[in-house]
What does this fold into?
Amino acid sequence: MSLGQVLDRVYRLVRGYWRLFLGVAIVPTVMVMMPMFAAGAWWFTIMLPQIASQSGAKPHIPIYFSFVFLGCDLVLIPVYAFYAPAGIYAAIQANLGVKITIRQAYLVAWRNYGRYLWLMVVVSLYILIPLTVAGLLIGGGAFLLLHGAQPDSARAASILLIPAGILAPFGILVYFVLVILRFAVAYPAAVAEGISARAALRRSASLTRGARGRIFVVLLVVYLCAYVASMVLMIAVGLIVSICALAALAVHVAVGSAAFYTLIALAVIVYALVIVVYAAVVYAAMSAALAVIYHDQRWRKDGVFSSALPA
It folds into this structure.
């Protein structure tokens, strides 16, 4: 398929199977957001009294907060390893014209969850290990440069670090994108072909070779479309919330009253729901795009059309 045909196919899949895709995507979104919102609420309950005291002292942030939020980030790995095969399976079957249920999609993910979790861990290590090494080299070099410099030359030494500080984020971003493109169809290959994690990575590298620029454009366009659709939803919800806030001001809702806290709680719930919908839309759109890309690359590399693949 041409680039336009791939994008058109993704659009048709999302439009025709949006209930299935969003239903599958809501599960990991809620599982990820719940601990994050709980940690955020905990943070506010500790920090707000310090801020409201107006003592002039800087708020004290407990060191264990860092570990709490790091734990919330680590939750992403097992949760996404559970969602990715379910979402991909739903999208692959939809692209084959086969209707399945949310339960069937997650049964497929659960049946070989260990394999899919290991695949997620390996891909994460491909990204994290080189980035950690690069960070240690840059940080160690900066420490040695500044530590060994004379007091009058410390400023000149720090100027030498500016190019590294500018180029490092750009290099990290480029490396991250290259890894993602190389392993873009690893999960589709693992799900559709029933192969191991290492075989799926090799299969993805083979299928995406020579097509990564096109895959990048497809994923970028799909993400931007999902982002714009979600922003339209956020703007609409924001207008409604603003109108409600103006109405509350008009009836003189007092700060600290029961009505005030009720409105704040409702606003937080609406915000959480919007974030959940936004993440679910992005997950669903990306799963559909990866399924179409996988089938198209199977046709290009293996000469196997998607309709000839087993359902």
About this structure: The chain has one domain: 3-53+61-308. The CA atoms of residues 98 and 311 lie 7 Å apart.
